[in-house]
Write a structure and sequence with these properties.
Layout (H helix, E strand, L loop, with lengths): L3 H9 L27 H23 L3 H18 L4 H6 L1 E5 L7 H12 L2 H4 L8 H5 L2 E5 L1
Antiparallel strand pairs: 1-2
Length: 145
């Protein structure tokens, strides 16, 4: 039989005591400012800038070949994220890629992240900390500079 106690817990909603208050809290990152998780707006801005630059380069060098655009994008991401920790778009948006421990992502992480990024779907699936499957696969995070 349903009693008042059952209805009261239902009206109170689910237990939210273990849920993070902001993205990155579970990783020990600040809520805002330098070192905080990069939010969707900065991520979208960065990829639009990168894709636009790759499109421009492919248009000038390869007559706009769509495979060439993707190839240039993959090359840019692997080289720049693997060496500097950020692409041109990341730099303009004020974000960069690091490992969970704060160290540089490195070349292997850049290759795997970029190949998954090119597949699009792993990027669209994110957790509460705004980390896509491409970040989770290589234990990386995209944080503000």
């Amino acid at each position: 039989m349903v009693d008042r106690k059952d209805i009261g817990s239902w009206l109170g909603g689910p237990d939210t005591s273990g849920i993070s208050k902001y993205p990155g809290e579970r990783l020990g990152l600040p809520e805002s400012g330098a070192g905080s998780m990069a939010r969707a707006g900065r991520r979208i801005l960065a990829i639009c800038i990168d894709w636009g630059l790759c499109y421009l380069i492919a248009h000038l060098l390869l007559n706009g070949n769509s495979t060439g655009i993707l190839g240039i994008f993959v090359l840019e991401q692997i080289l720049l994220v693997g060496t500097l920790g950020y692409s041109i778009g990341h730099r303009i948006a004020g974000i960069h890629v690091t490992r969970l421990d704060g160290g540089p992502a490195g070349p292997l992480a850049a290759v795997v992240r970029t190949l998954l990024l090119a597949l699009v779907i792993p990027v669209a699936v994110v957790d509460a900390d705004h980390r896509g499957l491409h970040d989770k696969a290589m234990n990386t995070k995209l944080v503000r500079m």
